[in-house]
From TrEMBL, chain A:
The keyword DNA damage applies. The gene is recR. GO terms for biological process: DNA recombination; DNA repair. Keywords: DNA damage, DNA recombination, DNA repair, Metal-binding, Zinc, Zinc-finger. Belongs to the RecR family. PANTHER family: RECOMBINATION PROTEIN RECR. This is Recombination protein RecR. The keyword Transit peptide does not apply. It comes from Halostreptopolyspora alba. HAMAP family: RecR (MF_00017). PROSITE patterns: RECR, TOPRIM.
UniProtKB/TrEMBL annotation, chain B:
The keyword DNA damage applies. It is found in: Cytoplasm. This is DNA replication and repair protein RecF. It comes from Halostreptopolyspora alba. The gene is recF. GO terms for biological process: DNA replication; DNA synthesis involved in DNA repair; double-strand break repair; SOS response. One of its GO terms (cellular component) is cytoplasm. Keywords: ATP-binding, Cytoplasm, DNA damage, DNA repair, DNA replication, DNA-binding, Nucleotide-binding, SOS response. Its main location: cytoplasm. ATP binds at G30, A31, N32, G33, T34, G35, K36, T37.
Amino acid sequence: MYEGAVQNLIDELGRLPGVGPKSAQRIAFHLLAAETADVKRLTHALTEVKERVRFCDICGNVSEEEECRICRDARRDGAVICVVEESKDVVAIERTREYRGRYHVLGGAISPIEGVGPDDLRIKELMARLSDGQVTELILATDPNLEGEATATYLARLVKPMGLKVTRLASGLPVGGDLEYADEVTLGRAFEGRRSLED
Amino acid sequence: MYVSHLQLADYRSYPEVYLELGPGISTFVGANGTGKTNLVEAIGYVATLDSHRVSTDAPLVRKGAERAVVRAAVVRGDRTAMIDLEITPGKANRARLNRAPATRPREILGILRAVLFAPEDLALVKGDPGERRRFLDELLVARAPRLAGVRSDYDRVLKQRNALLKSASASLAKRRDVDLSTLDVWDEHLATAGADLIAARLSLVSELQPLVAKSYAELTSAGGPPVLQYRCSAVPDDATPVPSEHPQLVDTLRAALRDSRDQELQRGVGLVGPHRDDLRLHLDDLPAKGYASQGEAWSYALSLRLAGFELLRADGDDPVLILDDVFAELDAERRRRLAEHVRYAEQVLVSAAVPDDIPDELRGARFVVREGGVTRE
């Protein structure tokens, strides 16, 4: 145990995801040794992120204004909505530069063990967005694990009566990878989702 | 295949032990409590990542030590695989294959195949359904490591669904409204994953049936024939046959989940699925549990293990056969017949407290086990 302020800092850092007690201690001593100006910049960034960043009223993505950059962009296709679990998934899909529609960030996936049900996710907001009839396709891009699949199944059933096109991202082999290194579940999925080369 | 080297560090009673083994028969002889079973248990652990004696890893680590290390060399044809396992209780095991880290310990499953028979196996006949499900699932994974994934997928669905049932049942008890639409989603996942597992178990049982009957007839002339019957918790009465095709199984599970929903919500736990199934063992048409004599029960349990051995052997490679303290439980006639049955396996490891219990047919390399050490005689 260290004296007051140092221990407080270690405790706070230790609460961050992916930071264990050893790393927390290392970061704390790094900060102690750093220039005051550097530390000021960090504290400024921390306060600013809490003061300025909020979640988009429409899609739930992180934003500095009421609506995020993508929701404000008139060039984006309003007929397609891609549903993801987290804001970082939006960034991942944006990097592809393939997708020109809009997003909806759920804020997680259904997981009864962690006490997360549909009411804890931004599903009501999604249903409201779908109700005006503008959207024709819903892309379900939740994670390809059990909880993500369960969330996708749940959403697919929920929107089925609305009669829009519902698609799920394909799962299978990674591009540029070797077949022999794929695990059996991935390879099995890739077999299920194989497609004909003739058309 | 056979185990050519076994090295243990801080495993059970052993601070350090190193053994060189050969193909054929090896016997471990020593007084009770000197650590014979610990040696064969360690080999079993390399094969299944599970001990046949305890369900947690803590007892495997020597008192006062932080972790146990098991290192085994497995010879298969003209190739040798080195397996390193580090067992740390409360943490994930670490595994290395040929000195390179395996990403998941699961990847070493199937490299060493072993069939272990021990006094605890009497529970296969006399114990709870869980013992028999474990027998089936271990054999499934040994034959097709892919099924370890199927099992863990199913367990995960089960856990999520049970968590939901538990909270829903608590809300219902307080007369609060519960949204059951997500339960439909979990039902669907349980039906698909459960059908995968049941289909695999069913085809295994039908392959085992003739082999169990054959082994049983070779071991004893009393009673029989043994009949195996897989009972599905999703099929309520014995008269209805269990469908064997995957799509029909999914439908059967779906229907059973629908029918038992009220009961499941009331009790807050899943009542339908392969985790509630049983492998019923009959002798002639009487249930072995309750009707079989001690000798018949032993022969039955042994026949199940030997049938597993034959199945693995038919897949290509002779698994290592481990007979842990078995001969003390059998009469002279059964000992002789068992010895006759197993002597041609590529590697047989036998442990016994009394050397005279081991039949003459199984005289091989003999290791004497004393407090904390093993010497070859």
